[in-house]
Amino acid sequence: MRLSDYDYCLPRELIAQRPPEHRGDSRLMVLRPDTQKIEHRRFDELKTFLEQGDLLVLNDTQVLPARRFSDDGAIEFLFLERLGHCRWKCFVSPGRKMRVGATAEIDNVTLSVDEITPEGERIVVFSKDIDPYSGGSMPLPPYIRRHGDTDDAARYQTVFAQIPGALAAPTAGLHFTPEILSQIPHTFVTLHVGTGTFLPVRSENVTDHRMHAERFSISHSAAGKINSARRIVAVGTTVVRVLESAQRTDGNLVGQKGSTDIFIYPPYQFRAVDILLTNFHLPRSTLLMLVSAFAGREFLLHAYKEAIRERYRFYSYGDCMLVL
């Protein structure tokens, strides 16, 4: 369980900086862990790998436009959470300019740093109550080396996003068009993706890492569909974390709201998910560890090497894989 066991080298040019021109145009790498076989297909062929009784489960969280800049452009803010009247938790960059007592302006409203958390987050207080998400942009991950624009407002959001609350997109869902989704039985759960999912693992012993809790909900209708399905196809690691964390009664999933800090890594035994659709993930990340638990670490890293040879596009706006 060493962190170095989840490393690989990725050429920078394979990190997708833009989505494909059209949703659904992505490549699909198909992994069969039982036979150790790999196929190279297209995302619009997804339906051909599913069978009668299979159910897609997708995350319908909606990404908040949480990235803002100070009026002078000198400070970047990522607003994480409203703590009370005029009071917010956020990340700032560069941090050296925003020590306790430092000020900046957004929309001509002054904010000041009241506190710095042990994790480096800033607790800021506005001089009057405003909604910092108004006029904000999509919080693109740092490996996308540009500022978000009007295209990202649509493309860094799934076509089925319904419930605002996420700080990052459930990226496996970005490939779906309404037409593709309409052809496959499906239901939705909600997990509001926070920054904790993407925090780096800093301990060489993987088991020492702790996940931040993230809120989720499952409707009674979705629970009924999931219980009746023959096989569950989780669209993304966020759905895996919801389904593997959710409370069950007599073996059946129940409608519920809660939070999860589940950290899935080998040799985790899955009880709720049969098939996984997911994007390619960063080295040494908790997401790569989760998929390693599902596909097998050695086989998955072999597949990543093949994806690099075949020039797949990686990460949020990149291609995807289906683990059968």
Task: Provide a brief overview of the structure.
By secondary structure, this protein is of the alpha/beta class. The chain contains six helices and 19 strands. It has two domains: 3-64 and 140-323, QueA-like (3-Layer(aba) Sandwich), CATH 3.40.1780; 67-126, QueA-like (Thrombin, subunit H, Beta Barrel), CATH 2.40.10.
List keywords for this structure.
alpha/beta; 9-stranded mixed beta sheet; 29% strand
What does this structure look like?
16% of the residues lie in helices and 29% in strands. The protein has 324 residues and is an alpha/beta fold. The chain has 2 domains: 3-64 and 140-323, 3-Layer(aba) Sandwich (QueA-like); 67-126, QueA-like (Thrombin, subunit H). The protein is globular and about 60 Å long. The model has no long low-confidence stretch (mean pLDDT 95).
Major β-sheet strand ordering: 2-1-19-18-14-3-12-13-17
Binned strand content: 25-35%
**Structural class based on helices, strands and sheet pairing:** alpha/beta
Number of helices: 6
Query: What's the total count of β strands?
Result: 19
Given this structure, which CATH class of the largest domain is correct?
Alpha Beta
Mean pLDDT: 95
Low-confidence stretches: none
Main pleated sheet? 9 strands, mixed
CATH topology title of the largest domain: QueA-like
Query: Distance between termini?
Result: 24 Å
| CATH homologous superfamily (4th level) name of the largest domain | QueA-like
Query: What is the count of distinct domains?
Result: 2
